[in-house]
Amino acid sequence: GWAAFIFILLQFSQVVFLPIPSTVTVAAGAALFGPLLGSVYSLIGIMIGSLFAFLVGRYAGYRVVAWIIGKDTLETWLEKIKGKDKLFLSAMFLLPVFPDDVLCFVAGLSSMSILYFAIVILISRVLAIFVTSYAIALIPFTTWWGILIWCIFAVAVIALFVVLYKKSDAILAWIDRVFHRETRVTHKKEKNEFEVEIIDADGSIVTKGVAKNEKPQSSPDQPPEK
């Protein structure tokens, strides 16, 4: 009915216009419609809003995105993802410390295709929305133990957010090292071996080993296989 439509519109606006944490609106949806329907309505609104923000970045361009999220904010994130935008943005959407709504606009200026963006957003939002909705349904606010659990959870989330935010540059640097490693293979003919080295992004050797060629050598009396 109209209640569901208005809530979906609220979730859309939360991504594009309103500086409201999605956890608050997802919790409201779970309370109003139940965990399943609340999650579905939240997912619809947030997905439409995320795709809209991406398309604004893709087709309206730098100036419009800078006007919406602020030029300094935009420059900060563009500098962080420079040269590795698809990798870094994928990691940022999956980790809870980064501002997803802002990054949807930034993603529109990146090399991401809309299909790739939609898949990453769907995976990250489904996990966050359904976990939040069902946690609210299973842990009530009407009991002392429920309130205690939520207080502990809130403190833990805030502490995790602070730590991850302070270490965000280190996290991105680690992702860069792990996913930009190079494998070098050198064939030693005299020993019929291959020397294998895995090189980190900074040029250091992560792993080094030797692999033997197990292919049997043809005997002098037997012609080589064609």
UniProtKB/TrEMBL annotation:
Entry keywords, A to Z: Cell membrane, Membrane, Transmembrane, Transmembrane helix
Chief site of localization: membrane
Domain of life: Bacteria
GO cellular component terms listed in the entry, alphabetical order: plasma membrane
Membrane topology: Multi-pass membrane protein
InterPro entries to which the protein is assigned, alphabetical: TMEM64, VTT_dom
Membrane-traversing stretches: 6-33, 40-60, 87-107, 114-137, 143-165
Segments forming domain VTT: 20-137
Compartment(s): Cell membrane
Pfam families in the cross-refs: VTT_dom
Sequence similarity: Belongs to the TVP38/TMEM64 family.
Protein name: TVP38/TMEM64 family membrane protein
